[in-house]
Amino acid sequence: MRIGIVGVAGRLGSVLAAGIAAVEDLELVAGVSPSHAGRPLGEVVPALAGGPASEVIVAAGLDVLVDAKVDVALEVTGPATVGAHLAWLLGQGIHTVVGATGLLASDLETARELAAAGPARAAIVPNFSIGAVLVERFAAEAARHLPNVEIVELHHDRKVDAPSGTAVATAAAIASALGDDLAPAAGVDGRAVAAGARGALVHGIPVHAIRLPGLVAHEEVLLGGEGQLLTLRHDATDRSAYVAGAVLACRRVGGLDGLVVGLGELL
User: Fold this and answer.
1) What whole-number distance in Å separates Cα of residue 154 and Cα of residue 167?
2) Most exposed: 7, 55, 249, 259, by fewest CB within 10 Å?
3) pLDDT digits (tens, 9 = 90+) for 28-65
4) What are the strands, taking DSSP E only, across the chain?
5) Which pLDDT score is estimated for 101?
6) Residue 228 contacts by C-beta under 8 Å, 6 or more apart in sequence?
7) What is the pTM of this model?
8) What is the DSSP secondary-structure string of 21-84?
């Protein structure tokens, strides 16, 4: 399967490039990064040096993915570009796996229509980590019994979006599981509550975003009840945690029915 990575030189893209190049049934044939255009992948991603993908020339634009006849594009740029890239890729008939967060509701709706009408399929994966997906599933189940829930997500200080896509997906899963049984968040307003002190309400659930150097990606789901507290926590201490999920998504996306959101849909 021929893979192209959009955002190949980024923190996540470079790790996924090395991981995909090491898998026998996937072939990394194209990389896109405007600031690294014209350089071979072996220079841009040192882990690829000496391997079969090392001499692939990084391109500035998405056209290289068509020229390279990629089967699947892995989009891992950021909120400013991911929506337009996704629409373009699906319009070109290229199966697409999105690992970037920041898609607008309008972007997602456009992508759904393109994936339903055309030959290309899409998987929107806010977090490629298997452990993070499990926390989302466990949290939705636990909330049926402990419906008072808050989420804390902690990421490195260069992350541009807040809350994280993972936290938003977790809140959505919990809200979907509970429906009208979701307990109202306590103390979110009032004269003694400073603006933002109780986090942002996402699907009715308070979500607190922390950005600090030294962090990678971490999430806590806290579920409270009378005399008890249940904490579900996942820590990604290295971006290598995302490789297995990205490989799985690349293998499965072509067999999807239109567009799906979440790695859990592929497991």
Assistant:
1) 10
2) 55
3) 999 999 999 999 999 999 999 999 999 999 999 999 99
4) 2-6, 27-32, 72-75, 95-98, 122-124, 148-155, 200-202, 205-211, 217-225, 228-236, 259-261
5) 82
6) 146
7) 0.85
8) HTSTT-EEEEEE-GGGTTSBHHHHSGGGTTSTTTTPBPBSSTHHHHHTT-SEEEE---TTTHHH
| Catalytic annotation present for 69 | no
Give buried/exposed letters for 54-78 (b at 16+ CB in 10 A, else e). Answer: bebebbeebebbeebebbbbbbbbb
Two structure tokens written together for 29: 């044939």
Q: What letter would DSSP give residue 10?
A: S
Please say if 155 is a catalytic residue. yes
* Catalytic, out of 36, 159, 208, 234: 159
Over residues 144-164, the pLDDT tens digits come to 999 999 999 999 999 989 999
Please pick, among 36, 155, 208, 234, the residue that the annotation labels catalytic.
Answer: 155
